[in-house]
Amino acid sequence: DHRLLQIFCVDAKINRQNDRWIDSDPDEVPIIRRTKFPAGVHVLEVMSSEGDIMPPHFFAKGQNVNKEVYLDVMQTVVKPWMTQIAAGRPYLYQQDGALAHTSNLVQNWCLENLDMFWSKEFYPPSSPDLNPCDYNLWGVLERDTNKRAHNTVDSLKAGIIQAVANLSREQVAHAVGRFWHRVEAVIVKGGSWIE
């Protein structure tokens, strides 16, 4: 299982590198309005190698995801979901190197309560190339969710929920299945970035 936190905002996203307009009439160029400090939501996702994906968990507005908050979500949301999905089969839990994840409190809980997990000593620091959420999931969800601006945070949340529901098991399994190929590519590069 793989997981990660992501922050989505209500503004539409454009790619400044790819989304360009060339026109002799300035009135034909669309105006992209931006909010100075757009509202957003902090989301936690977990997905499995078999294509299962947990319904998005939204943290409360302004909630700092520290080790206590993260551990509470692990105990009350993530672990019950993984237990249900695994249905008695063993599983391996991977998380990145965020401070809340690498705290002794969370690491000890994972050691005592999860079948297997990658400890902070095993997972390479600053390795988005090795996290399926980073190299696949967040880009797909952001593309689908932020095609247009959302008037409210509730509208944004509904868009995220719908985008997650639209992901096929095959799509999720393929993203996670690329993991070992990516590990091998990082090894070939001597631990450097692969993208």
From TrEMBL:
Signal peptide: none annotated. It comes from the Eukaryota. InterPro entries: RNaseH_sf, Tc1-like_DDE_dom. Pfam families: DDE_3 (PF13358). This is Transposable element tcb2 transposase. Residues 31-157 form the Tc1-like transposase DDE domain. One of its GO terms (molecular function) is nucleic acid binding.
